[in-house]
Write a structure and sequence with these properties.
Elements lengths: L5 E7 L6 E8 L3 H13 L3 E3 L22 E2 L6 E2 L1 H17 L22 E2 L6 E2 L1 H15 L3 H8 L10
Amino acid sequence: MSDGQDHYIEVLDQAWRTPRYALLAHVADAKVVRQLQMLGEGGHGIWRGNQVSKYPKLWGSPPMIGTMDYRAFPGGYGHGSGTEARWIQEHMDQEKKENNGRISFPPAFGEPPAIQTDDLRPLPFGYGMGSGTIAAWLEQKALELYGETVEEYNAEVSGNGNGPQRK
């Protein structure tokens, strides 16, 4: 079965944001589409077709030029330059201030679980407080989609990495 469309994905080099390669696929099924989407998201790619933005739309585009370092991003968004990490943190802090402590989750994570435990605990990746169900969901999605672990992020914010320091 085919969706009848050609799908292009351009994966950008993280440090210089230049095209590394492009992939053309005549999609055979939804599984292939999702694999291409994850490849694009994991490599800061541009998915043309059924596009899913890596960041909330209201944030706009991330900085095009960044420092040539590599670190875990806030929010479970993966890895990249300190410049982009600071940009993410600034937008998360702004959302928290403007939305009564609520911060958008990465769009690629999809909808959070509808049924949640009735507990309150710290959420990973700088999201504040929430249920254990949401904490586990965030941890799973960050690892699955962007290859980022809670331990990596915690090392960055505790000063054991070179990441942005939390206020």
